[in-house]
Amino acid sequence: MNKWTVAAGSMVLAAFGTLLAAGTAAASPYEKYAGSTIVVSWPALSHFRKAETLVQEFTDETGIEVEIDALQYLKLRDRQLLEMSKEEGEYDVVSWVVMWKGEYVSKGLLTPLSQMFTSGALVDPEYDVDDIADAYLQNGGVVGGKKGYMPGKSGGLYGVPFGAETSILAYRMDLLEQAGVAPPTTYDELRAALPVIKDKTGVGALTSRGKTGHQVTAGWLLHLAPLGGKIFDDAWNPVFNNAAGVEAAQIMREITQTGPTGIPSYGFSEASAAFLQGDAAMYIDTLKIAAMSRDPKLSKVDGKVGFALHPVGSRCGSETGGFAVGIPANSQNKEAAFLFIQYITSKAGDRRMVELGGDPVRMSTIAHFADQFAEYPVVLEQLPCADPDWRPLIPEWNELNIDVLGQALTQVITTDEPIQPIMDAAAEKARAIMEREGYYAWTRYRGQ
Amino acid sequence: MAETATGRIPGHPRPRPRPRFDSRALTPYWFILPAVAVMAAGLVYPVLDALYLSFFNWKIATPFSKAEHVGLANYVRMLADPDVRESLWVTIRFGFWTITIEMVLGVALALMLEKPIRGASVFRTIFILPLMVSPVVVGLIWRYLFDARVGWINYYLGLWFGIEPQVWLGVPDLAFFAIVLTDIWQWTPFIFIIVIAGLQALPSEVLEASRIDGANWWQQTFLVKLPMIRSILIIALLMRLIDVFRALEVMYIMTGGGPGRATELLSLHIYNRAFDAQLLGYASAIAVLLIVIVFGLSAAILAHGNPMNEKTDV
Amino acid sequence: MQAERRLESPAAVWSRYGAIIVLAGICLLPIWVMVGTSFKNEVLIFDGRPVWFFFVPTLDNYEYILTRGKFDRYLVNSIIVGTASTFFTLFFGGLCAYALARTEFRARRFVANATLLVRMVPPAVLAVPAFAMVTMFSLKNDLAVLTFFYTALNLPFAIWLLFGFYKQIPMEIEEAAIVDGATAWQVFYRVLLPLMKSGYAVAGIFAFRIAWNEFILALLLTGRSTRTLPVGAAGFITDTGVEWGRIMAMGTLIAIPPLVFTFFAARQIISGMTAGAVKG
Fold it and tell me: What angle do CA A158, A164, A165 make, to 5 degrees?
């Protein structure tokens, strides 16, 4: 055979192949998009690092290339906003901290997922949205319901939770035993235990985030909801300077005094590292700590950690936070992006995430692994307590969070000044912001 | 006077007339055009744009056409804003401590080491290293040294003085101290290099004469040498002062401006206000304030003489 | 001077050398900490006990950065932006400095003063307008935008520096060329430029250094594929902790070109610094 016959033969074969493919329709729902590349913007957090393996499996299976741009999570927003405000952005999938969802949607930067779920060619019939933990789905993905960020009939779906979380208590069984303290179930027990643990073990009692800005506010908010506090009342008046807010701030101060050295400089990673490296006896924050404590690269305390419910104050109320993934309105590859999101949050993908050391978002996954991991039963019990209103996810939240509360609470934990005036001053600033943004117009209009 | 500060070797005075490009009167304009165009578009336009934006309430990722014109509201707010005042105060305190210490240290070292020594070029090379390293890298190095858990500073303070580990970057006063120390490490060599160049350019006859007149070391230093390099000292001081208002990268990396606003110099404050709190218009108003301060200081330098105003080496 | 030195006691000489060596040590120490840490493994770093010299060095950090990170991409971007902005700075700045130093024209004084004034524009002031320009005009090529801003930031200092160098060249040389019938352009290109080599070298080092080291505009204006090295380095402050070994390795790599410049051209750099009494 000379090379011409080979060429001719292969052309015939190729033509035949094309005919066959056209005749039998797409063999795989992914086929149409194989070879395209999507760009994903998500945080450089443990869960997402583990997900890189899943992403590789997605590419192997579908032929869709994925490029990940992992950034420090508080730097994500600037970058995403810049890209999404261009005519054609770089990103096809963005992962946001739930507190940004209101802003993204109000600025028209996200693709409503209804546009995707109406396409029979894209949606996997076995996807089962209802299996995703409702607290997570509502908190991370639904925008436009009650107050704009809560569940409600006026809401629409813009994202799917991935790396979503609630808060639990993790504790060092050995240290608590040494101190003769039982894992606290209420805030009174917690406050009593803090100095005892510090005195008896010499190790910091409870680690917390405390860095100026978002971090210290996040630490404080964890205690605000269980103590019965709120940021705003129903008419958007700031009420975080009431008794519950001041008590939560007082607890933050006590935690800083009895905790590991350096809480005022701790971001999320430092606060977690303090617990994982053995410098703190307790941890109240995201359930992500459980998977991290089993990772030998991050943790020195594997096997010594117990889990319990987030302590209760006047009510039970754990955080609802973490991340959700969605598609920017200016993405050029929306279909492939949807297939990617569907893949990583599918039942199989979710289970695979747990195997890789990540965190699940589906009830079926949590139930499936309940026997294997000590924290899963706790999480199942904690989820009904998860409070979707533990912080207001309004577009103005970022300014309040960083500029107002983030500053005031730093003052609380780094000085001995009386707390009430600090919180009152912050409330005044918050009111000025809400006034500026027009939140009180309706109340005033009704009042006339 | 200013000659030494600009490094001009005093030229040979030359008599006029000299050739002008009189038949090609436009030629100089063609020569300066590209540079002037780039500076106009890249420096002057943004400054004017900042001024323009400062009259709007504009949020990130919304079209500018939707921005609300708010008149002078941003300026009214700025003048009453305790955060701006605090950041300005931090900047002034930072400038005071760093510049005072750097000037005293730099001048003292230069006086101590002005005499020629063996290996001077090697030492001088070493002294300018802190100036050449990227500010981001400087910030990273010192963030590591000041780290509460693994930092070397805590370790040696504990080892030598029995001091408990401190959270350097998490306590307002300590964090402020940390950025001051970092700045001193980085910028003292700058003063040193400039002053020593000035000292070595002093005419030796004058020093000789003063010594013959019986001046002792103190008199020679404070009555002869330092007054003679006064102009250099003033320019160096103004330059450092302007730098204080421009500084942001080292603090961005080390503390991000925290805790609270304890290390948030004015430049960093603008950045944080613009991109954390996303108040683009308001941040622009603060930027205008910064520009006014910096241009005021620059005018002080200009008043000291702009060598480029003298066309010829007369 | 000679006479003075002979009078000095050996003790004074030794104390002077002692002082200078201590100072050199203070300047070098943090840089050594960076280089040393970049060769340490995580266990050694997180142990918290400083080890100065005697540890088993590892190349793991460098291997990670060079293979798993996007170091090559950042490096190429930094080199592109650095060389392009240096080229434009020298080209435009040289022309402008020449005209200011050698000719008289009506706008001269204004240009000279304005140049000195805009040299001080803080990068933070540029941040918001630059961001606005990029979003409003939908500018796509990040590296070109960055090159443009770096050129603008570098020009005033380069003009000031080159102006000083032009002034040192005697007028006779040009006069002779003009008598021979050379045009202004020929005088500039054939006669002056060769004499200006060292001046351009100094200005070039300063311009490249700014472009290589600049952080805040690069952070704002570059995306995933156009980041420069300093922005890439800051990216190693991750949410799972600061990866000190890797960050220090990245820092070491970023510091190499400035350090090399310093060792080979310390004299020129010092002349540049003292020329403007300026940071640059």
Answer: 140
Model confidence at A242, in pLDDT bands (50, 70, 90)? very high
Subunits adjacent to chain C (3 or more Cβ pairs under 8 Å): A, B
Angstroms from A81 CA to nearest CA on chain B: 6
- Mean pLDDT over A56-66 rounds to 92
Which of A414, A417, A436 would best serve as a mutation to test chain B binding (most B beta carbons within 10 A)?
A414
Of A311, A306, A200, give the one whose Cα is nearest residue A258: A200
Question: Average pLDDT, stretch C226-243?
Answer: 79
Question: CB distance C100–B311 less than 8 Å?
Answer: yes
Q: Do C276 and B53 make contact, defined as CB atoms within 8 angstroms?
A: no
| Minimum Cα–Cα distance from B273: chain A residue | A403
- What is the tens place of the pLDDT at every residue in C167-205? 888 888 878 888 888 887 788 778 888 888 888 888 898
**CB within 8 Å: B260 and A266:** no
CB A319 within 8 A of CB A222: yes
CB of A328 less than 8 A from some CB of C? no
Which candidate, A326, A332, A339, places its Cα nearest to that of A86? A332
Domain topology for B92-305: MetI-like fold (1.10.3720)
Tell me the C-alpha distance between C160 and C145, whole Å.
Answer: 24
Q: Where are the domains of chain B?
A: 92-305
Measure C48 CA to nearest chain B CA, in Å: 4
pLDDT > 80? residue C23 = yes
Which residue, among A75, A77, A277, would best test binding to C if mutated, counting the most C CBs under 10 Å from its CB?
Answer: A75
Higher pLDDT, B228 or C278: B228
* Cβ atoms within 10 Å, residue B231: 18
Nearest to B243 among C209, C251, C279 (CB): C279
pLDDT of residue A277: 86
CB C244 within 8 A of CB C57: no
ipTM over 0.95: no
Q: How far apart are CA A334 and CA A114, in angstroms?
A: 12
Amino acid at B156: Y
* pLDDT bracket for residue A185 (50, 70, 90): very high
pLDDT at A11: 56
Burial of residue A35 (number of CB atoms within 10 Å: 0-12, 13-18, 19+): exposed
Distances (CA, A) of A376 to A49, A167, A294, C139: 21, 12, 14, 49
CA distance B278 to chain C (A): 10
Contact B140 C247 (CB under 8 A): yes
Q: Is the pLDDT of residue A383 over 60?
A: yes
Domain C65-276 matching CATH 1.20.1420.30: the answer reads no
Q: How confident is the model at residue A362 (pLDDT cuts 50, 70, 90)?
A: very high
Q: What is the Cα B239 distance to its own chain's centre? A: 5
Peptide bond into B259 cis (omega under 30): yes
Measured between CA atoms, the residue of chain A closest to residue B272 is: A403
Peptide linkage before C30 cis (omega within 30 of 0):
no
Q: Does A43 contact C242 at a Cβ distance shorter than 8 Å?
A: no
Contact assignment for A45 to C131 by CB distance below 8 Å:
no
The answer to whether B3 faces chain A, any CB pair under 8 Å, is no
**Distance (Å) from the alpha carbon of C138 to chain A's nearest alpha carbon:** 6
Q: Does A273 touch chain C (CB under 8 A)?
A: yes
Question: Closest approach of chain B CAs to the CA of A410, in angstroms?
Answer: 6
Mutation for testing the C interface, residue in A68, A82, A209, A266 having most C CBs under 10 Å: A82
Domains for chain A: give ranges and CATH numbers: 31-165+321-385 (3.40.190.10), 166-319+390-447 (3.40.190.10)
Of C206, C279, C121, whose CA–CA distance to B297 is shortest?
Answer: C121
Does position C5 have pLDDT exceeding 60, yes or no? no
